[in-house]
């Protein structure tokens, strides 16, 4: 029996639930709580020189690595069920039964299940970190892609569909992402034994899985590499897609379009596309969240005496602002329902701010009128209280 077979038989006969002191039907939280308690009690750092506790710590870590993972736990339970019901005759794979039954080797069974369809080999493949040479590479999601799009001010308010030309990483067109020369057959990667990953120790009883550096996670290798991608399995793709920019998008906003990124490998899903939207400025209007802003030029007399001023709206008829007499410069008037589209389909408001325009040149009549106004209001200087406050 090979060392790998012994390793499997050892796991088949271990009761990881008993090691953790929990029942088979214990919840995930109960298993985690038991593991943490035992790990603290038996950790090597807390028990220097105590070899018994060190071994206990390793057993606890091994047990939790299996029953603490949903997929591994399911496979382990199925394996234990087969083992306990006589599915593995002889008490362990590769040995004769107590009643003289024929010897049985689990590795032979795994090889027999290597054809089309799953079988017991698929059920135990992930649990034991070993795959068959006929295993198909794992599906891998495509890479996410980022791009920038510039749209008009009005399009940002109403929403728009735009065309985007994208260049992204993609499976090689010659080998379809396999990395092998067309016509050649793959075989299991010798470095990871077809698992797609290798186990790297991180100190103590702990270890972690890393992508295999030889097959790059594809599980298989080819003797002859693809002449186009030189075995990498990767190429480039250029395509044009239609992307819908939602109504009300703001300048600088990042939009996620699911499944519009780079194609996946081995049947994996495509990545996502992230579009950073740049919105062009408008000649008259500005934007403040769901509201539009507008600066309205007015004269001094319109604010002092009151007036009705016509102002434009975006995509609709003009509206009239009624400015009361004595309105201060910089006051903002709200015109409801004339702003940007909100997420619920309603619209924000138009915020119109009045700004006094000072004429650069005055004709004689206007100058004479202003001088008369100055004389009429000179008895009440505007800044007298300001200077008194400073002097006191």
UniProtKB/TrEMBL annotation:
Entries under PANTHER family matching the protein: CHAPERONE PROTEIN DNAJ 1, DNAJ HOMOLOG 1, MITOCHONDRIAL-RELATED
Keywords attached to this entry: Chaperone, Cytoplasm, Metal-binding, Repeat, Stress response, Zinc, Zinc-finger
Gene3D superfamilies to which the protein is assigned, alphabetical: DnaJ domain (1.10.287.110), Heat shock protein DnaJ, cysteine-rich domain (2.10.230.10), Urease metallochaperone UreE, N-terminal domain (2.60.260.20)
Any one of the GO CC terms: cytoplasm
SUPFAM superfamilies xrefs: Chaperone J-domain, DnaJ/Hsp40 cysteine-rich domain, HSP40/DnaJ peptide-binding domain
Keyword Chaperone included in the entry's annotation: yes
GO biological process: protein refolding; response to heat
Endpoints of the signal sequence: none
Domain CR-type: 159-238
UniProt region (Disordered), positions on chain: 38-57, 127-146
Designated name of the protein: Unannotated protein
Pfam family, one: DnaJ
One term of GO molecular function: unfolded protein binding
Start and end residues of each J domain: 15-80
């Amino acid at each position: 029996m090979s060392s790998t077979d012994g390793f499997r038989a050892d796991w088949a006969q271990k009761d990881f639930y008993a090691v953790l002191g929990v029942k088979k039907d214990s919840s995930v939280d109960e298993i985690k709580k038991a593991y943490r308690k035992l790990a603290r009690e038996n950790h090597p750092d807390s028990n220097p020189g105590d070899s018994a506790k060190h071994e206990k710590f390793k057993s606890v870590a091994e047990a939790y690595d299996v029953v603490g993972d949903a997929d591994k736990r399911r496979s382990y339970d199925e394996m234990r069920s087969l083992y306990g019901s006589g599915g593995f005759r002889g008490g362990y794979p590769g040995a004769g039964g107590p009643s003289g039954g024929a010897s049985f080797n689990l590795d032979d069974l795994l090889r027999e299940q290597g054809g089309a369809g799953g079988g017991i080999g698929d059920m135990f493949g992930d649990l034991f970190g070993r795959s068959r040479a006929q295993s198909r590479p794992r599906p891998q999601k495509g890479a996410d892609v980022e791009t920038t799009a510039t749209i008009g001010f009005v399009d940002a308010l109403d929403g728009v569909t735009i065309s985007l030309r994208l260049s992204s990483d993609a499976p090689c067109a010659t080998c379809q992402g396999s990395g092998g020369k067309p016509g050649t057959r793959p075989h299991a990667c010798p470095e990871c034994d077809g698992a797609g990953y290798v186990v790297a120790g991180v100190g103590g009883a702990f270890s972690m899985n890393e992508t295999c550096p030889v097959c790059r996670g594809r599980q298989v290798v080819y003797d002859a590499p693809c002449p186009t991608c030189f075995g990498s399995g990767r190429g480039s793709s250029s395509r044009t897609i239609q992307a819908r920019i939602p109504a009300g998008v703001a300048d600088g906003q990042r939009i996620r379009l699911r499944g519009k990124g780079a194609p996946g490998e081995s049947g994996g899903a495509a990545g996502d596309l992230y579009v950073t939207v740049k919105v062009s400025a408008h000649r008259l209007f500005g934007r403040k969240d769901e509201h539009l802003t507008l600066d309205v030029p007015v004269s001094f007399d319109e604010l002092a005496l009151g007036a009705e001023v016509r102002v434009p709206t975006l995509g609709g008829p003009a509206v009239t602002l009624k400015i009361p007499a004595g309105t201060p410069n910089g006051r903002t008037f709200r015109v409801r329902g004339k702003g940007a589209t909100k997420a619920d389909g309603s619209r924000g408001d138009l915020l119109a701010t009045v700004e006094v325009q000072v004429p650069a040149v005055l004709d004689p009549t206007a100058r004479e009128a202003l001088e008369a106004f100055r004389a009429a209001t000179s008895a009440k200087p505007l800044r007298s209280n300001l200077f008194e406050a400073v002097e006191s």
